[in-house]
Model the fold of this input.
Amino acid sequence: MSGWGKADDKTSAGSIALATTGVVTGNSTAFTTAAAVGDILTANSIDFRITAIASNTSCTVVNADTAGAAIAAIGAGENYTLSEKPSGMIAANSVTGFTSETVFGVDENEMAANKAVGAGHAGWVHVRTNGTRKISETLVALSKNGITGDAEDTEFEDFLLSITTQPADSTKAAGQAETFTVVAASTGTGGTITFQWQLQTGGTGDFTNISNAGVYTTATTATLNISDNTGLTTNKYRCVVSKTGADDVTSDAATLTTS
Done:
């Protein structure tokens, strides 16, 4: 497992001792500044997941491969590495017939500086070595809810929403009907785009969701219908476009003016 430290940016200074209770005692370590709860601490070729950090020289771990497994004590002076393997990917190091296996979590800069590790691109990569041959497999997070949420993590949505036609300002005589329309597109097939029109009364203050009541209808479709614009001059209207698996996008605000 030592290959991890060549590619990941976690600092593993000093050495450790490990008690059967899971308490790690460090010597010249920096757990508070270099590690986080959920990180993997590897020592004596065993993966442990950090569950608590008390100080730079003290943390608590559990076995990362088998839930509830007993922990064998490790004497003082043991070398270790820190990494950010996602939960569930530790089991990837279990394919037989290979001399070594490692899961890497690296960004573009780390890959450029560590090409020899065998991971062909940035991201989560499982590298298996058999003699001089390396097999690199890309590990994909199927849900953004499974990503750790660290500041350096990048989350990619299933779909990308965009607004191709913005609602336009409207000027009409008082007592007229109005419509505001938005056109949205989605990159990636499947799912349903939904709409919610919002109102900023008098063009100031917060935007609030519009309900289908009074002069308003079709407030949850691509076109908002207003049956009578009397008393609505200077109001602003915008639409929030949504889709499960995508980040919401909000249209420009269109102004209603009566003449």
Summary: The two ends are 74 Å apart (CA to CA). DSSP finds three helices and 21 strands in the chain.
